[in-house]
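Here is a complete protein record:
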Amino acid sequence: MRQPPFISRRLTAAAAVLVVGAGAAACGPQESKGDSPGASGTPHKGGTLTVLNSAPQEDFDPARLYTSGGGNIPSLVFRTLTTRNREDGAAGAKVVPDLATDLGTPSKNATVWTYTLKDGLKYEDGSRITSADIKYGIERSFAAELSGGAPYLRDWLIGGADYQGPYKDKKGLDSIETPDEKTIVFHLDKPEGEFPYLATQTQTTPVPKAKDEGTKYEQHPLSSGPYRVVKNEGDGERLVLERNTHWSAATDEERKAYPDRIVVRSGLASAVINQRLSASRGTDAAAVTTDTNLGPAELAKVTGDKDLAARVGTGHFGYTNYIAFNPKVKPFDNPKVRQAISYAIDRSSVVNAAGGSSLAEPATTFLPDQKSFGHTPYDHFPAGRTGNASKAKELLEEAGYAKGLTVTLTHDNEKNFATSPEIATAIQEALKKAGITVKLRGLEDNDYSDTVYNVKSEPGFFLGGWGADWPSGGPFFAPIFDGRQIVKAGYNFNSAQLNDASVNKEIDEINKLTDLGAAAKRWGALDKKVGEQALTVPLFHPVYKRLYGKSVKNIVISDWTGVLDVSQVAVK
């Protein structure tokens, strides 16, 4: 699961929250670039870019990072087989070649993918990058001591489920072949048409076996990108990057690498970050943030200041906040009850509780409203802007609850504008108009995650959210609705515990498609079909509003990440 783009490592879906103040996780921005003099003008090389963040860039090892598209800060150091297209808006949701010459050549049934490396690829020490290095980089990500990365390679590669990494099994994975120094071949246990997206994960970063230091590698990973690590303090709390002189722009069409030096300072309070970016004094004039949003109050102040307003980047990321039902729990086993709640929802009040229309957009589909996801507009239970209480009452009567109904809504106590008390209260007030009394059950953050994403303790009615590991329907839709992904002993995200043979079959058929556009249309159609069952109530998609310093130029915010791309900015 992809995080909102302020978190570089994988957490549970319950921890994926819109934070005022961390995929990653989410739509086409209509106002991506800032309009200030700092954002316009011809960008030039030179200077120092400062990144002011709340969360440290922990586990700075390509094996341990859970990023999509290569990440933001990580992609300055780690190149991957493919990467995200570094352009504004919808164009930035495309996958493009990076170390590889193309997006890969699939076999007829998409179970074998072959990649050829570009010429002239080098590490920071001048040595050549080979296909064997990419194979080894992937294999070390299977080691228990380097866990934390995306699970897909373990799930997709033949033999991946049992492989323990090169420290225990020196033979390596037979399902990854390197017939020569420029060719790498992957053998999958089932068709996967979206493998080019997976190849953007940092696990495909090359790592030469001779330079691997296990858990210590993160202190000075060998750079394949435009910058090298010269300092890593406090487990990523302070990072200093300088130019990799052996990186060649001729082999890299995506990263601009304008600044000479990049300094990442983390562990800062959100208010402090926004204050520093607002004042934009000294080195902060050439500063950005990759994980700190403007909150409702801060945004109101910024909106009233023309100069500050021109220094706000707006982005969208593939993420949906929703109400989750567990049909195993009464009365949510009755479809008419779920439909009644769907009709009763007042999305205007929910959006206001999420920070207002500048920070949240109402949703009626589970898939985010981006083309790359295959978004197909539908509203099976039209509630208008403020809810349809009369239709909800009608359905409740049909369900046998003519005198009303009392239910409990579980939410997170964290003030996160997503699964928090504010959202829960907005829902409580809307459902009251339809004769539904909602009792609120707030849990502390860790307890909330452990409770709602466990089959044994999952409540019947709770707030959830889901983000995309990459901008397509596959990793967004399948974990929530594929019955074969129900986890009975661990974190389970299929809250409805849906195990529909026709849905599972269609997921398999879509996964065979290597035409990503055709696949997207099928994901959208499947979303519309499943949406009729009212297994979730989509509420809103978050919008990211972030300040940047007055000397920062070349603002690029793609629909893949929703945040400013540090590989594109200039400060001089």
Observations:
- The first helix runs from residue 131 to 140.
- Residues 2-38 have pLDDT under 50 and may be disordered.
- The first strand starts at residue 48 and ends at 52.
